[in-house]
Structures are given as structure tokens and as C-alpha cells.
From TrEMBL:
Name by which UniProt lists this protein: Uncharacterized protein
Organism annotation: Heterosigma akashiwo (Chromophytic alga)
Region feature Disordered, mapped onto this chain: 98-133, 240-274
Basic and acidic residues bias (residue ranges): 245-259
Feature: compositional bias, Gly residues: 114-125
Lineage: superkingdom: Eukaryota
Length: 302
């Protein structure tokens, strides 16, 4: 019974040990998966942070460029207004000069004076024509300059509009990456909590490992006890078998001795009977001898 109980206890300990080993292996696999997931999340978070930094830098650069373009646009608008004012002034001057020229042309020419009077009138008309030509040339230059400034301003405005149109997309991408960063940080925090839980579970796993080792030791001790009990049982069985054989031999010997004793007692009884018979015979013989002696003495006396 003790051997059976020890064997059952050893079997229970081995089953518990196998269950603990399976739990330990599953826990190690789960912990490795959590660490790998945490590493991937951290890498994704770092990549997202780098992308956010790059996009924020681009957004800042574009914002600075837009501010510069806005200032350039304001300056160009002011220059345009100045040029338009100057152009308007030049037009007014040209118009005034043209009116003066027309008025001068409509006036009758004075009679030629002696000593170069005609030369003086021709010189005045030539000066008006020259002034008119200069004003026309200045007007053309101003018009050309105005068209160039307008083209440059339009080019800058189109570039600013393109950059301004791209800016919301970049900002949306930045916001999306910020949301991704927030989600990744939350996921990373959750993973850290899981890792902390895993560390706590790892502590419990260490306790289970120690318990596992203790159970292994206890199982080994139980197995040793079972082996000792089995050896003792075998020895006991051998002793019992030997004792049974010795008992059977002793019983057989006792039986033989009882038989011999019975035979001896029978022989003794027979011998005693023979002895009694012999004693009786001797008694009868002695009586006969005594009787014979008495008869002989009686015969002699006569």
C-alpha cells in the first residue's frame, strides 16, 4: 500500500511538473512576441517622428517662403502703385505737352524777323518735338517696365498660390502623422504596460520555476522512495518466500518427526507389552522355580 501511494504521488508530481513546463514555455513565447511587437511599435514611432519633423520643417520653410512672397507681393504692389502714379503723371505731362504742341501748331506763325527770327521760331518748335519724343520714349519705357513687373508679380503670385495650395495637404499630412504618433504612443504605452505585466508574470514564472525545481526535487525524492519501497517489497517478498519455504520444510520435518515419534511410541508400547509379558513369564518362571525348590526340599526332608 505504501508503495502504491508513493507511486501515485510521484505520478501527480510528474503531471504537475509537465503542466508547469508547458505554462513556462507558453509564457516565454508570449513574452518574446510582446517584446518583438514593442520593438516594431517603437521603430514605427521613431519613423513617424522623423517624418513629422521633416514635414514640420517643410511646412515652416513654406510658411517662411509664403511670408517672404507676401512681403514681396506687397512691395511689388507698392512699386506698381508708384509706377502707375508715375505713369499717370507722365501721361498727364505728355498729354499737356501734346496739347501745348497742338496749340502751338494751331497758332499762326509770326512774321519772320530780321536777323534770324525764323531760326528762333524753328528752334521752339524743334524743342517741343524733342520733348514730345522724349515723353513718348519715357512712356514706352514705363509701359514696358510695368508689363515686366506685372509678369513677375503674376509669376510670383502663381508660385505663392501653388505653395499655398500644397500647404493644406502638408498640414493635413502632418496632422495625420501626429494622430498616428499619438496612436503609436498609446499603443507603445499599452505595450509597455503589457511588458510590465509580463515582467510581473515573469516574476511569477520565476516563482513557478522555483516551485518547479522544488517539485522536481520532491518528485526525485518520491521516485527514490518508490525505488526503495519497491526494493524493500522485493526483499520482503523474497524473505516471505524464503520463510514460506523454510516453514514448509519445518512443517515437513515436524510431520516427519511426528510420524517417527508415533512410530517410536508404537514400538515403545509394543516393547513395554513385550516387557510386561517377559516380566510375567519371569514371574511365573520364578514361581515355578520356587515351587520346584520347595518340592526338592520336601523330598530331601523325607
Amino acid at each position: 500500500r505504501a508503495a502504491a501511494a508513493a507511486a501515485a504521488r510521484a505520478a501527480r508530481l510528474e503531471a504537475e511538473l509537465a503542466a508547469l513546463k508547458e505554462t513556462k514555455a507558453a509564457s516565454a513565447t508570449e513574452e518574446a512576441a510582446k517584446r518583438a511587437e514593442q520593438a516594431r511599435a517603437a521603430a514605427a514611432l521613431q519613423a513617424a517622428q522623423r517624418k513629422i519633423d521633416e514635414l514640420e520643417t517643410q511646412v515652416q520653410e513654406l510658411t517662411d517662403e509664403l511670408e517672404v512672397l507676401a512681403l514681396d507681393k506687397e512691395e511689388a504692389a507698392m512699386e506698381k502703385e508708384d509706377l502707375e502714379e508715375k505713369l499717370e503723371e507722365a501721361r498727364l505731362e505728355v498729354e499737356a505737352a501734346r496739347l501745348e504742341l497742338e496749340h502751338a501748331q494751331q497758332q499762326p506763325l509770326p512774321p519772320p524777323a530780321e536777323g534770324g527770327g525764323s531760326g528762333s521760331g524753328g528752334a521752339g518748335e524743334g524743342e517741343l518735338r524733342e520733348q514730345n519724343a522724349q515723353l513718348r520714349e519715357a512712356l514706352g519705357k514705363l509701359a514696358k517696365l510695368s508689363q515686366t513687373e506685372k509678369a513677375e508679380l503674376a509669376k510670383q503670385a502663381r508660385a505663392a498660390e501653388r505653395e499655398a495650395a500644397a500647404l493644406p495637404g502638408l498640414r493635413a499630412e502632418v496632422e495625420g502623422l501626429k494622430e498616428f504618433k499619438a496612436g503609436a504612443q498609446a499603443e507603445l504605452l499599452e505595450l509597455k504596460e503589457q511588458v510590465d505585466t509580463g515582467l510581473a508574470f515573469e516574476g511569477m514564472l520565476e516563482e513557478l520555476t522555483e516551485k518547479n525545481l522544488d517539485l522536481e526535487q520532491r518528485a526525485a525524492e518520491a521516485a527514490a522512495q518508490v525505488a526503495d519501497l519497491e526494493a524493500a517489497l522485493e526483499l520482503s517478498e523474497e524473505i516471505e518466500q524464503s520463510q514460506a519455504e523454510e516453514l514448509r520444510a519445518a512443517q515437513e520435518e515436524a510431520q516427519r518427526r511426528e510420524t517417527a515419534l508415533a512410530n517410536t511410541q508404537g514400538a515403545l508400547e509394543r516393547t513395554q507389552a513385550d516387557l510386561e509379558d517377559a516380566k510375567a513369564t519371569v514371574g511365573r518362571f520364578r514361581a515355578l522355580v520356587g515351587e520346584l525348590k520347595e518340592r526338592g526340599q520336601s523330598a530331601e526332608a523325607r
